[in-house]
C-alpha cells in the first residue's frame, strides 16, 4: 500500500511544528520551508490526481486496520482534484503573503498556514465522517489563528463572531454524527452507504433527521442562505491572503455535500428521498440573489468581494442541488473557477489597499501602481461576474445547460441571468470609482504618498489569473475530467467495494483461533 | 434511565441555545460550553445506555458497553476544550481592545469601518 495518499496531510503537519520550533524568529527560514513545502505539495497532489485519473480508487488504511474498524483515506477523482486545487491556490497565496509582507505582521503565520493546509487536505481525503469532523476542526482552529493575524480591534471583533458561529456549527456536526451512529452503528462513509439501504421504510425517522442535520452543517460551511451571515464580516476583516485562502474553505462545504449526498444518501435512496429536493435549490437561488445584490450594495471593496463569494457559492450549489451527473460536472468546473477568481479578487483588493490606504468605494486620488492593479481588477471582475471570455462565462453556460432538464428551469435561468447582470453592475461601479474617477481628482497637499505593491505580489496575483486563463483555454479537458468525476460519483460501487473489501490487519483469522 | 439522560440533554441544549442568542460574548461562550456538554452526553448515549458493562473485552463478562462512542466523546471533549480556550482568548482580546463586548456589529462600527483604515 503506497503511502503517497497520506503525504498531503503529513507533509504540512511536519512542516508546521518544525517552523514553530526551529525557525521561530527567522521569517526568512520560515518562508523558505513554507514555499518548498507548497511546491512539494503541488507535485504530490499532481501525482495523486494522475494516479486516479483512470478511475482507480486509492485506499490508505491507517494502522493497517480494515474499514470500518479503522480510519481510511480514500482518493478518487473528486478528492484528488480538490487536493490539487488547494495545493495550487496555497502556493500563490503564500507568494503573495511573502511579497506583501503580510506574513511578518504577526506571529506564526507560516505555521498556521501549514496547519490550515493539513486540515483542508485531510477533509478532502478522509473516508470517515468523524475523521471529517476532526479535520474540519483542524482547519477551523488554524483559520481562527489566521483570521486574527496582525490583530487590530475590528479584526478581533470580526474574529469573535467567526469563531462563535463556527463553534455552534461544530456542535451541530456532533449532534448529526451522534444521530448517524445511533441509527446505523458506523461512521465510515462506504459502510454507511451499505447500511442505510438496510433501514426499513417504517423506521426512517432517525436517519432522515440525521441526514438533514448533516446537510445543515455543510450548508453553514458553504455559506448558503440563511446560514451565510458569518461570511461577510469575517472575509472582509481577515487579512487579504487569509481571505484568499478562505476561498477554498467554502468549497470544502460544497465537497462534503457532494460526497455525502451521492455516496451515503444518494438521490435514489427511498429512506432519504424528498429530504433536500424541496428546499436546497431555492436556498441556493436565494444565496445567489443575495450575494449579487450585496455586490451592488457594498460600500467597501472587501465586502463586495465577500458577497461575490456568497453569490458564486450559491451558483455552484444551484448546480449541485440538481444531483444529476451533468449538474455535478458543471458544478465542479464552476467550483474550480470560483476558487481561483475569489482568491484573485481578495489579493487584488489588497493591492488596491496598499496603493490607496483604504477600500471605501468613494472617489479618491489615484492609487500607487494604478495601471497594473486596475488591469488585474478588470480581469478578476470579468472572471467573477461571469463575462466572456473567461471561465466564469463557460461555467455559467454549463450551469444553465445542466439546469435545462430541471422542473424549475425558468426560475433558475432567470435568477442566474438577472443576478449576473446585477453583479456586472456592481463590479463595474466599483472599478470605475476606484480607478477611473480617481484620475479626475488631484492629490491633496496632506495626502500620504504610498508605495506601489511589491513585484512578488503582482507575480502571485498574475499566477492566479494565469490559472484562470488556463482553466478557460483547457475548458474542454477540464470539463471532460469533471464529467468523468461525476460519473464515478454516481456509480459508487467501486468506491464502496474497495473500502469495505480490502483486508487489513487480523482480517483473516490466524492459526489457532 | 433513558428519560433522565434525555431530559438532561434537553435541558442543557435549551439553556445553551438561550445563552447563545445573547448579545454579549461571555454569555455566548457559556452557552457554547453548555451545548458541548449536551452534545457530549448525546454522543455517549448514542451507543445505548448500559449499567455496569465494561467497554473493553474481559474474561467472564457477557455484556459490554459500546466503546466507539466513548472514544468519540473523548475526541469531542478535547477538541471543544481547545476551542473554548481559543474563543475566550480572542474574546478577551477583542473586549480589552475596543472596550465593547457586543457580539453583533454595532452601528458605530459601520461609521468607523468606512473611514480610512489601513
Overall geometric form of chain B: elongated
Query: What about the largest sheet of chain B?
Result: none
Oligomer: heterodimer
User: Main sheet of chain A?
Assistant: 2 strands, antiparallel
| Structural category of chain A | mainly alpha
The low-confidence parts of chain A are none
Shape of chain A: globular
The average pLDDT score of chain B comes to 88
Task: Describe the fold and architecture.
The complex is a heterodimer of chains A (513) and B (118). The mean pLDDT of chain A is 92. Chain A is an all-alpha fold. In chain A, helix 11 (280-297) packs antiparallel against helix 12 (301-320). Chain A is 70% helix and 2% strand. Chain A has helices spanning 7-22, 27-52, 77-100, 109-125, 129-147, 153-184, 189-196, 205-221, 231-237, 240-263, 280-297, 301-320, 325-356, 370-385, 391-402, 409-436, 455-473, 475-490, 493-501; strands spanning 58-61, 72-75. Chain B is built from four helices and no strands. In chain B, helix 1 (2-20) packs antiparallel against helix 2 (25-45) and helix 2 packs antiparallel against helix 3. Chain B is elongated. The N and C termini of chain B lie far apart (59 Å). The A-B interface holds A 130, 134, 137, 140-141, 144-145, 148, 151-154, 156-157, 159-161, 163-164, 167-168, 170-171, 174-175, 177-179, 181-182, 233, 299-300, 353, 357-358, 360 and B 20, 25, 28-29, 32, 35-36, 39-40, 42-43, 45-47, 68-69, 72, 75-76, 79-80, 82-84, 86-87, 90-91, 93-94, 97-98, 100, 103-105, 109, 112-118.
Amino acid at each position: 500500500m503506497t503511502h503517497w495518499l497520506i503525504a498531503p496531510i503529513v507533509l504540512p503537519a511536519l512542516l508546521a511544528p518544525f517552523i514553530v520550533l526551529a525557525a521561530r524568529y527567522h521569517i526568512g527560514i520560515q518562508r523558505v520551508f513554507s514555499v518548498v513545502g507548497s511546491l512539494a505539495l503541488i507535485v504530490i497532489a499532481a501525482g495523486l490526481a494522475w494516479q486516479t485519473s483512470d478511475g482507480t480508487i486509492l485506499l490508505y488504511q491507517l494502522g493497517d486496520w480494515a474499514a470500518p474498524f479503522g480510519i481510511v483515506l480514500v482518493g478518487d477523482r473528486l478528492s484528488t482534484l480538490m487536493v490539487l486545487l488547494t495545493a495550487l491556490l496555497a502556493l500563490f497565496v503564500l507568494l503573495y503573503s511573502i511579497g506583501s509582507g503580510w506574513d511578518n505582521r504577526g506571529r506564526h503565520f507560516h505555521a498556521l498556514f501549514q496547519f490550515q493546509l493539513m486540515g483542508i487536505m485531510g477533509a478532502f481525503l478522509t473516508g470517515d465522517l468523524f475523521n471529517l469532523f476532526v479535520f474540519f476542526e483542524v482547519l477551523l482552529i488554524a483559520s481562527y489563528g489566521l483570521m486574527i493575524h496582525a490583530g487590530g480591534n475590528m479584526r478581533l471583533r470580526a474574529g469573535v463572531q467567526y469563531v462563535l458561529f463556527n463553534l455552534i456549527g461544530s456542535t451541530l456536526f456532533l449532534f448529526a454524527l451522534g444521530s448517524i451512529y445511533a441509527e446505523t452503528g458506523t461512521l465510515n462513509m462506504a459502510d454507511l452507504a451499505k447500511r442505510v439501504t438496510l433501514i426499513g421504510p417504517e423506521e426512517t425517522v432517525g436517519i432522515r433527521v440525521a441526514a438533514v442535520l448533516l446537510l445543515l452543517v455543510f450548508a453553514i460551511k458553504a455559506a448558503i442562505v440563511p446560514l451565510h451571515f458569518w461570511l461577510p464580516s469575517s472575509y472582509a476583516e481577515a487579512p487579504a491572503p487569509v481571505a484568499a485562502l478562505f476561498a477554498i474553505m467554502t468549497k470544502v462545504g460544497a465537497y462534503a455535500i457532494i460526497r455525502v449526498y451521492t455516496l451515503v444518501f444518494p438521490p435514489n435512496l427511498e429512506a432519504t428521498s424528498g429530504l433536500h429536493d424541496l428546499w436546497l435549490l431555492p436556498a441556493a437561488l436565494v444565496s445567489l440573489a443575495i450575494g449579487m445584490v450585496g455586490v451592488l450594495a457594498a460600500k467597501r471593496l472587501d465586502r463586495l468581494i465577500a458577497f461575490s463569494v456568497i453569490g458564486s457559492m450559491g451558483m455552484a450549489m444551484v448546480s449541485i442541488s440538481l444531483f444529476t451527473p451533468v449538474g455535478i460536472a458543471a458544478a465542479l468546473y464552476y467550483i474550480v473557477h470560483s476558487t481561483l477568481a475569489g482568491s484573485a479578487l481578495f489579493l487584488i483588493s489588497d493591492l488596491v489597499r496598499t496603493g490607496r490606504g483604504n477600500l471605501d468605494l468613494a472617489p479618491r486620488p489615484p492609487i500607487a501602481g494604478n495601471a497594473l492593479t486596475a488591469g488585474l481588477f478588470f480581469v478578476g471582475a470579468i472572471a467573477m461576474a461571469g463575462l466572456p471570455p473567461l471561465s466564469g462565462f463557460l461555467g455559467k453556460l454549463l450551469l444553465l445547460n445542466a439546469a435545462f432538464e430541471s422542473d424549475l428551469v425558468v426560475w433558475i435561468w432567470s435568477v442566474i441571468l438577472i443576478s449576473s447582470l446585477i453583479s456586472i453592475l456592481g463590479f463595474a461601479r466599483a472599478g470605475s470609482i476606484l480607478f477611473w474617477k480617481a484620475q479626475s481628482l488631484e492629490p491633496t497637499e496632506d495626502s500620504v504618498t504610498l508605495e506601489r505593491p511589491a513585484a512578488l505580489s503582482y507575480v502571485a496575483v498574475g499566477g492566479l489569473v494565469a490559472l484562470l486563463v488556463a482553466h478557460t483555454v483547457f475548458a474542454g479537458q477540464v470539463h471532460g475530467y469533471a464529467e468523468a468525476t461525476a460519473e464515478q460519483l454516481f456509480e459508487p460501487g467501486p468506491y464502496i467495494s474497495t473500502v469495505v473489501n480490502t483486508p487489513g490487519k487480523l482480517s483473516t483469522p490466524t492459526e489457532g483461533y | 434511565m433513558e428519560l433522565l439522560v434525555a431530559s438532561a440533554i434537553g435541558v442543557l441544549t435549551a439553556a445553551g441555545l438561550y445563552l447563545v442568542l445573547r448579545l454579549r460574548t461571555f454569555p455566548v461562550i457559556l452557552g457554547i460550553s453548555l451545548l458541548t456538554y449536551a452534545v457530549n452526553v448525546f454522543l455517549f448515549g448514542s451507543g445505548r445506555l448500559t449499567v455496569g458493562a465494561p467497554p473493553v473485552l474481559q474474561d467472564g463478562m457477557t455484556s459490554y458497553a459500546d466503546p466507539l462512542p466513548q472514544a468519540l466523546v473523548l475526541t469531542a471533549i478535547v477538541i471543544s476544550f481547545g476551542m473554548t480556550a481559543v474563543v475566550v482568548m480572542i474574546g478577551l482580546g477583542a473586549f480589552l481592545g475596543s472596550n465593547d463586548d457586543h457580539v453583533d456589529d454595532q452601528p458605530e462600527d459601520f461609521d468607523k469601518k468606512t473611514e480610512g483604515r489601513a
